[in-house]
From TrEMBL:
Cross-referenced InterPro entries: Homeodomain-like_sf (IPR009057), HTH-type_Tx_Regulator (IPR050624), HTH_TetR (IPR001647), Tet_transcr_reg_TetR-rel_C_sf (IPR036271)
Keyword Lyase on entry: no
Key words, A-Z: DNA-binding
Protein name (Swiss-Prot/TrEMBL): TetR family transcriptional regulator
UniProt domain HTH tetR-type: residue ranges: 1-60
């Protein structure tokens, strides 16, 4: 329980104040323990930070991948749109994790840059595999014209990245959803048969 509370407090504080702006003593105080208690669970501030980062990335991926349960009933188009919708739901339901991951993907602490990139690449591999499977499905359905899969996967992942930034720019659900719908239709019109 204390371990989870430490991770929650760390995610929020690292997300708000940055790595350098967050002291372990602040995290401990928020949880109601003394700073040395953190070391019962984590070797260092860096260990706590990377644990939170990896778990935030894993929770994002798991949330997105849950769409694939029962996906066999959906067309490739519906599934791909569903990924973008699930991403939006994740941002709305998990704002601390979303802010935390985005902040450190764009502005990682210099000494953790490589470690963060490695964690991100693991996440990216999972998404790449899912999106690639959907593109192939779309080709088999005749909805996507036959072409190389990887450029389409890369394009779709860039749509996801762009929408990630848009979410933090626009607080209006209507504006964000309009942008989501427009970018998806543009992508789909470009790849379809």
């Amino acid at each position: 329980m204390t371990r989870n509370k430490l991770k929650e407090a760390a995610m929020r504080l690292f997300g708000e104040k940055g790595y350098d702006g967050t002291a372990l003593s602040e995290i401990a105080k928020e949880v109601g323990v003394k700073t040395p208690a953190i070391y019962a669970f984590y070797e260092s501030k860096e260990d706590l930070f990377m644990t939170v980062f990896r778990e935030a990335m894993d929770s994002y991926n798991t949330f997105i991948q849950e769409l694939s349960k029962g996906r066999e009933k959906l067309s490739a188009r519906e599934s791909m749109y569903g990924i973008l919708s699930r991403q939006y739901e994740f941002y709305r339901e998990c704002p601390d994790a979303s802010k935390f991951v985005l902040r450190y993907m764009v502005f990682p602490p210099v000494f953790l840059k490589e470690t963060i990139e490695e964690a991100f690449l693991h996440s990216d591999e999972r998404l790449t595999k899912l999106v690639g499977t959907l593109i192939v499905q779309g080709m088999e359905e005749g909805a996507i014209r036959d072409q190389k899969v990887q450029p389409l996967v890369d394009s779709f992942l860039n749509v996801m990245d762009g929408l990630s930034i848009q979410y933090f720019y626009y607080t209006s659900k209507e504006v964000y959803e309009r942008k989501l719908n427009h970018v998806f239709e543009t992508f789909w019109n470009g790849v379809r048969s």
